[in-house]
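Lecture notes, unit on protein representations.

Consider one protein chain, 284 amino acids long.
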Amino acid sequence: MTTIKFYKYHALGNDYIVINPNETDLQLTTEKIKQICHRNFGIGSDGILYGPDKTPKSAFGLRIFNPDGSEAEKSGNGLRIFSRYLWDCKLVGEQPFHVDTPGGLVLAQVQENGRQVTVEMGRITFISNQIPVTGPSREVLNESMTVLDKTFYFSAASIGNPHCVIPCDEISRSLAEKYGPHIETDARFPNKINVQFMQAVDRANIRIEIWERGAGYTLASGSSSSAAAAVARKLGFCDDSITVHMPGGTIGIKISPHYDITMTGSVTRVGQGVLDNELFTTKF
């Protein structure tokens, strides 16, 4: 019988399960990922962090799976959680270390006895073919799109994964849930896209509601915070140090003159256990 150890954490209510490939011979398939992540028929999570797995760039390679079975290039909350997991396993200490993701190499540092993690997320790009967004090569800023009954003005960005940021006078969960699924799958975004509805509060604070590609409505997201803060800075709404407020809590973002992003936020360990193979015999 396959032994499947798991470790569960959340970052501002955005919860992930860590599965270490060195502790199991489980082969993660789309159906198994969906089963594990299901909140009624599985453990329940916003995704699976599969690592560490040594790569040419780092001893700590990480793959990130969404609850629909698709693979994400990068996740800010996932990276903070994975960093905390490495710290809990005594694989890292207080010094910075690199994690290799499909969305690029990042530098992380665990602080405050594991409760806070800082991640250098990389450089934001607004260039269409790097995000990607269809059409001629350009910075995707303040473009219009009509979704259902409403016209939005959006900016797009990538920090290793794609984001669509929509400034709004007012934001709400219902706004994200109504329009987010349609924007995520809009034809102008060939790899689909994460969606943030953003309200600029003042020069140092923004609020966002998030529809996450492959996961749906999400309480918090590190890469979404990074992208939304960068767009707020690019459009002149905010300065270079921004607190991002989400339903799950806050993340601090610092933006360099070249739009390199440093993110700091909390991580909470929930628990650990062993998945039973009987889990995979139930169909839903």
